[in-house]
Design goal:
The complex is a heterodimer of chains A (483) and B (457). By secondary structure, chain A is mainly α. In chain A, 64% of the residues lie in helices and 1% in strands. The two termini of chain B are 22 Å apart. Classes of the chains: A mainly alpha (483), B alpha/beta (457).
């Protein structure tokens, strides 16, 4: 382990990250809501921390090894979440406890979108903007941005990139050089966000809301600048725009890149993960709409189809916008929708959850096991497209699933210690670990009433989900630290 | 530059490392996924798994907009077909293929755009053979490379007690050897490089790189160390491709013996070679070496295909009294390992191939590139084109040229005349300029110097 190099890079990333505190200052200058001091202090604090971590080690330029990559990514995320919480903690409105501020920051960075603030409409604009921007920063994280614009990382960039990107297959690079790959992904990300903001603006939102909601949409975060989330606008048009952009952000950015580069839409249709995602969506819609018709809900509201589709896409892409109180729908539906978030979107996107590709591989393996029972001597290969998936990847998927279940069980028991009811604890954990946002039971509006201990547990769960378990847990293994 | 390398073997890997570190967009293709994984772990490049000559593989490696294809798989046929496919289907501008077998190499008309579309052929065995031959011809040199078709040579030599100049400054050379032109371009002292100044004092054990015409090399070298007598007796361990060609090239000037352990191969060798003694046996067999008078052998050179066997037999030969031993070592880690041990010179085939390949990667009009000290430094021969307005170097005196730090101009070859660089030299159009670059990060800047401005057509 090269501690000096780790510090050097960590410091650089912190310096880069501190830049995110500058745009809220401009917002404050526009609206003059009196929070300028908060952001200036936070900015100075964060850049100072970055400077003292980077400066003493600026000459240490060793190559990063795989382990260093894990340490940097985990350390950076933890430090970033603490730094990101500082403005919430300092600001006079909302008057937050430390645990609340951390929860809010982690929820933003991990693009979960759960909130402990009961009424966001009253917040100062700069704080609101900052809260939305957290999701933008966390969606395709600063680490990927760092890899794109800090050329001196060299091969270390690859280590960081792999630790950071989601999905089980991480070895296929889009371009020969990692900086170009990272750049391409960021350009696509920013491009979709700009398009989304413009569409929202054209669809009737104010510019402030359009930018804020576009951050939350493309990062699949789901925080809103209004208590009623998307329901505030009561516009089917905006909901349709939102559905489109949530869907785009749930597709692998690699796929967007390949399709854009070759200017052929056919690449989407040929991608096995994308096809599986579409199939899943169709099945969900059939179930949800069928259920609503069966229970007679559909006759009460003429916009219900769009609303149910919006809620479904919002939750299964782990965004978490709501347009209506969906927890009042027939009891089966809210829970079923939360279950769709366990799967989430495609790998290499901004969504949380298990990712479609893992579920697809698990499904193919299950079919193979069944087939093996029928033909004991047959040989079956697991393929994606036309390419055989190596056993190493399949093993990793199983390991991932096992870790998911174990972490889930342990964290659920931890939550239940402080006497919350099962539905609340279960939905809170599910929504946090899959980075979705909305909960059921006593947290269906906000998470503010939970105990501090539970907020810490859930913050940890969000980080686990965002960094896909292995990255965080590997740091807790003693063998990792032995030389 | 976008470069596709086919084959992640030893040369492919070394090349990929080299080129990706110089900020080229490198994609490596191989059929064995494990080799690719290791490459991708350690270097900033992309890998594609598949049969290298299939158009579909080339396509997914980005052949459509690649600037260069380097085919170095272990199959000659695969390399040739891949170049042909790249030419016909993707119009790749530069295609380089490694072809080992001399059976293809002798028919030059096989290669060209009408036949197999290979722009540059690389034969590593031939390169290694040339390399060893030059070392045997210059008994005390560590490395000898040719520039301007052999008009100037760059020689690396280790200074020793007993050399006239050791302990003296560089500019005393003129007094010691009046009339002989030579120029020291670099000195390595304890593995660190020094930029030579006229007042630099030479210490024992310095590694000195100097330029001179072939006729003067021996005289100059004699001032840095006590000279060996010209070699007479050579033992080659291993009668494979390299051993055979080396024996062919050397057998008329030296007493050459080859030790080879395959009976079939010795029979072939004894038919083909006239003046060489072919010995059937193991090169690491002590009694065999003693019987063959190893203690009065001038050069023992092990060139089998196994690194370990080469190292061991070379050490054994040295212990038994061979004057100078050389070993062919493929694995880069072993080359570092034997550096400074009993083995006098470790010969790395990759380095030989690498220089030849790098010549074609360099921009500007670069005629030849030699990788020195296992890639730590590079010697470049570049041609100055254009005129005073379009070129950054023409019409300028050497001190006025904006050379990057750590770069020295060693010599200029104008037509058949060799001018060793001094302060009043002016560079004229079509001069071949020989540069020595210590810091490889600066190679781009050197290339840019020799590129002609946009106004020149």
């Amino acid at each position: 382990m090269h501690l000096t190099t780790i510090f050097r890079i960590l410091g650089l990333f912190l310096l880069l990250g501190s830049l995110m505190l500058i745009p809220p200052m401009f917002v404050e200058q526009w609206y003059l809501d009196g929070s300028l001091k908060v952001f200036v202090i936070s900015f100075l604090f964060m850049s100072f921390c970055g400077l003292i971590t980077w400066f003493p080690f600026r000459q240490h330029k060793q190559e990063l090894c795989t382990r260093d990559g894990f340490v940097i990514v985990v350390l950076f995320w933890v430090v970033l979440c603490f730094m990101g919480a500082v403005p919430f903690w300092l600001a006079p409105s909302p008057n937050m406890s430390f645990a609340d501020a951390i929860f809010e920051a982690v929820s933003g960075f991990t693009t979960t979108g759960s909130s402990v603030i009961p009424h966001v409409d009253d917040l100062p604009h700069s704080i609101l903007y900052y809260r939305q921007q957290l999701q933008f920063v966390g969606g395709i994280s600063i680490i990927i941005l760092g890899v794109a614009i800090l050329p001196m990382l060299g091969i270390g960039g690859m280590q960081l990139f792999r630790t950071e990107m989601t999905g089980p297959i991480k070895d296929d690079k889009l371009t020969p050089r990692i900086t170009q790959t990272a750049k391409a992904i960021w350009v696509i990300y920013v491009g979709i966000t700009i398009l989304c903001a413009l569409s929202y603006w054209a669809g009737g939102m104010s510019l402030f809301d359009a930018i804020g909601y576009s951050y939350a949409t493309v990062a699949t975060g789901g925080m809103a600048t209004h208590d009623l989330s998307m329901g505030y606008f009561d516009s089917p048009m905006l909901q349709i725009i939102s559905i489109i952009f949530m869907f785009l952000s749930a597709i692998s950015f690699n796929l967007h890149f390949i399709a854009l580069r070759s200017k052929k839409i056919g690449f989407y249709a040929a991608d096995p993960e994308f096809r599986a995602f579409i199939k899943l969506l169709l099945i969900y819609i059939l179930i949800v709409w069928g259920m609503l018709v069966l229970t007679g809900e559909h006759s009460k509201n003429e916009n219900l189809f769009i609303e149910s589709l919006f809620t479904l896409v919002s939750i299964c892409t782990t965004t978490g916008f709501v347009s209506t109180n969906f927890s009042a729908w027939p009891y089966f539906l809210p829970l079923m929708m939360l279950f769709t978030a366990i799967i989430g979107g495609c790998s290499g996107s901004t969504t949380g959850g298990l990712k479609v590709i893992r579920v697809l591989l698990l499904q193919k393996q299950s079919v193979r096991e069944v087939n093996r029972l029928i033909h004991p001597y047959a040989q079956y290969a697991i393929t994606l497209g036309d390419i055989k998936v190596s056993n190493k990847v399949l093993d990793a998927v199983w390991g991932f699933l096992a870790l998911y279940f174990v972490s889930f069980t342990v964290l659920l028991l931890l939550l239940l210690i402080s006497n919350v009811d099962l539905l609340t604890a279960y939905s809170a954990l599910l929504t946090c670990i899959s980075n979705t946002g909305p909960g059921l039971g006593s947290i269906s509006n906000h998470f503010g009433d939970l105990s501090d201990f539970n907020k810490w547990v859930l913050s940890f769960a969000m980080l686990l989900g965002r960094l896909e378990f292995f990255t965080i847990l590997v740091v807790f293994v003693p063998a990792f630290w032995r030389n | 530059m976008k470069i596709i390398i086919l084959g992640a073997g030893q040369v492919g890997t070394a090349l990929a490392e080299h080129l990706s570190k110089e900020n080229n967009d490198v994609t490596v293709v191989d059929i064995v996924p494990e080799r690719l994984r290791a490459l991708q772990e350690h270097f900033d490049l992309r890998t594609v798994c598949g049969p290298a000559s299939y158009p579909s593989t080339l396509m997914s490696a980005g052949a459509e907009d690649a600037d260069m294809l380097i085919a170095v798989t272990n199959s000659d046929e695969c390399n040739m077909v891949a170049c042909q496919a790249a030419y016909t289907l993707f119009k790749t501008p530069t295609k380089i293929a490694r072809v080992r077998s001399s059976h293809y190499m002798v028919y030059e008309e096989l290669f060209g755009n009408e036949a197999f579309a290979v722009d540059v052929l690389i034969s590593p065995d031939h390169l290694v053979m040339q390399h060893i031959k030059r070392l045997i011809e210059n008994p005390d040199a560590l490395q000898v490379v040719n520039f301007a078709k052999g008009k100037v040579q760059l020689v690396a030599v280790r200074a020793f007690y007993g050399g006239l100049l050791v302990g003296h400054t560089l500019d005393e050379m003129k007094e010691v050897l009046p009339g002989v032109e030579t120029k020291v371009v670099a000195i390595f002292r304890r593995n660190k490089s020094l930029v030579p100044m006229p007042k630099t004092i030479i210490e024992p054990d310095d590694e000195i790189f100097f330029l001179a015409t072939p006729a003067d090399i021996l005289a100059v070298m004699g001032k840095y160390r006590h000279l060996d007598k010209p070699y007479k007796n050579v033992i080659l361990a291993g009668g494979g491709n390299i051993g055979f060609r080396l024996a062919q090239a050397l057998e008329n000037q030296y007493h050459v013996k080859i030790i080879e352990n395959s009976r079939a191969r010795t029979e072939f060798l004894s038919e083909e070679l006239e003046n060489t003694t072919i010995l059937l046996g193991d090169a690491a067999d002590k009694t065999l070496l003693l019987d063959e008078n190893i203690q009065s052998t001038d050069v023992f050179c092990s060139v089998t295909q196994f690194d370990e066997a080469n190292i061991m037999s070379a050490i054994l030969a040295k212990r038994l009294g061979a004057h100078r031993v050389m070993a062919l070592i493929n694995r880069p880690a072993y080359v570092d390992l034997v550096d400074g041990s009993e083995i006098d010179i470790a010969i790395s085939p990759q380095q030989a191939s690498l220089g030849a390949l790098l010549t074609h990667v360099r921009r500007g009009d670069v005629v030849s590139v030699h990788s020195l000290r296992r890639g730590a430094a590079e010697a470049i021969e570049a041609v100055a084109h254009g005129d005073q307005t379009s070129s950054q170097v023409i019409g300028k005196k050497i001190p006025d040229i904006p050379l990057p730090k750590g770069t020295t101009i060693g010599a200029i070859v104008r037509g058949s005349k060799v001018i060793l660089a001094h302060e009043n030299c002016t560079i004229e159009p079509e001069d071949h300029v020989i540069l020595f670059v210590l810091d490889k990060q600066k190679i781009r800047e050197v290339e840019r110097l020799f590129q002609v401005g946009a106004t020149y057509i």
